[in-house]
Amino acid sequence: MDSRLTLHTDETFLHLLNTSFQSGEKVNLLIDDGGISRMEGYIKAVNSTDQDSFIELDDTTIELKKIVAVNGIFRPEYGEC
Question: From residue 33, how far is each of 15, 30, 57, 59, 79 by CA, in Å?
Fold first, then answer.
């Protein structure tokens, strides 16, 4: 069984996404929206003011709860395969 770099159980991707947004660096994401898909691009906005937090990546809005991985760091429940 392989293992991956994961967030701690109580962490979210918000810090990583904000850092990438502020530095203007490209992000690579895995999204679980009824199936796993890959996305990459530059974050145009981060909205973290309510429970339905989201980012705007190029011309797409992505809910934070659907993000599985950011730049190779996974949510804990996706840490093994």
Answer: 22, 10, 15, 17, 18
